[in-house]
Structures
1.
Amino acid sequence: MKFLQKEIKLKARSRGFHLITEEVESQMQELKEINSGILNVFIKHTSAGITINENADPTVREDFESHFNEMVPENMPYYKHTLEGSDDMPAHIKASLLGSSLQIPVTNGKLNMGTWQGIYLAEHRNNGGSRKLVLSLYGI
């Protein structure tokens, strides 16, 4: 059994949903050494999230952003956590809805996702900056 863990830094992105599959794969070259295993992807932030969804049509990512903004609006009068800006508390809620980690099967040296699936970084802050992921790979 092999086990490897590394922390990677993603480039800063604008608010929205962004495909990061290729960035994750390129920074975890050791995937090629695993015949059967799991990649755990953990985001070290409370105002951005990760998920897996459609990787082909960019309007899906646009619709995600629109829906999340309707579902969790800014400037609600009941928000108490407001010192870091009007986008901060909604960003925390959105990140919790998506979650902070993914488990992806690895088969024959590749992520074993569906044809139309990709890893999304969901950046919920207007100026979130670069984001850190912990990648934990284990398998045979």
2.
Amino acid sequence: MILDVFVVSLVFSLFFKRRIFHLHETNIKLIYLFPLPFVLQFLPISNRILMMVVSYSLLFFLLSINHHVEGFKLIMLGSALNFLAILLGGGRMPVYGPLANKMGLLPSIKHALLEKFTPILLIGDIIPAYTPWGRKFLISIGDVLVYVGLLIFMLSKPDRSSFERTL
């Protein structure tokens, strides 16, 4: 779903001539490291919890040194909720099994199906989401915050006073 939100944000950004036209001028520190936390989550490591701790620690570090960027505080809050759910879920995001089955969704390596509703599911994947192009997902409240933060980031023009020009 994050890729869907990123593509929609990118299209909106292009349409409204916002962030994407100014990305080269923004002051995002260590931008080249942002894909790394997500790549780490898919490595076939036996200690899943350790890998998630390393992945989210790097993500929180990158988000915290860039907290001044519009939308990043919401992304950090949503990521923190997701991280908590994953830690409580033994290294996997808790998903409400009966709802996933009803939607025809199969769990991935990153998900743990729970057959009974428990309090951990309040921050797990329990919100049905459908795209106009036919994809369907279960997302968490943390995901919603991340997606809203990403939309804010992509649809805002950078503050010209925060640019650090270098030659």
